[in-house]
Amino acid sequence: MSDTMPTQTTIPQDPAEIPVDPTAPLVQPGAFLLELVPVPVTDLERAKTFYSEKAGFHVDVDVTPADGVRIVQLTPPGSFCSITLAEGLPTLDMPPGTLRGLHLVVADIEAARAELIGRGVEVSEVEDLGGVFYAWFADPDGNTWALQHMPWRP
To answer: What share of the chain is helix, strand, coil (3-state, %, to 5)?
Structure first.
């Protein structure tokens, strides 16, 4: 999703109301596209602020489809896979802070690390793990993320 896409804050009554994203990948026969990863958190608003303001994710959706249910979907810059923060959905109930090692692939790990640090995120030093470079950070609940740079990947 692009940062220019609006945040969806209402539930469309008609699928025709959902804006088309021309940059979205086609779902080919036989494909299984990973597009949404639930992230377990204790405080949805605090997590939304962290991911949108500190990590720089775009808020795609923030809806309350039923009493006691809230769904926030955010997408990292340039990614086709999003995360969801939810409350009131037993099917997504997991202990907060238990998600480990989600990877954000970047072209320049030092620049990505510096950007996150500049936004107030604590990020580890860059580690060279056999020619693949990593820097680690966590959200306020302790869910961990890795910046990953593979120099051979364009």
So the answer is: 20, 30, 55
Q: 40-52: per-residue pLDDT in tens?
A: 999 999 999 999 9
Q: Are 42 and 101 in contact (CB under 8 A)?
A: no
Mind listing the pLDDT tens digit for each residue in 69-91? Answer: 999 999 999 999 999 999 999 99
Q: Which of 32, 69, 30, 39 is nearest to 57 (CA)?
A: 39
Enter the tokens of residue 137: 């950070």
Q: Element (H or E) spanning 48, and its range?
A: helix 44-49
More confident residue, 26 or 98: 98
Q: How are beta strands 127-128 and 133-138 bridged, if at all? A: antiparallel
Residue pair 60/74 in contact (Cβ under 8 Å)? The answer is: yes
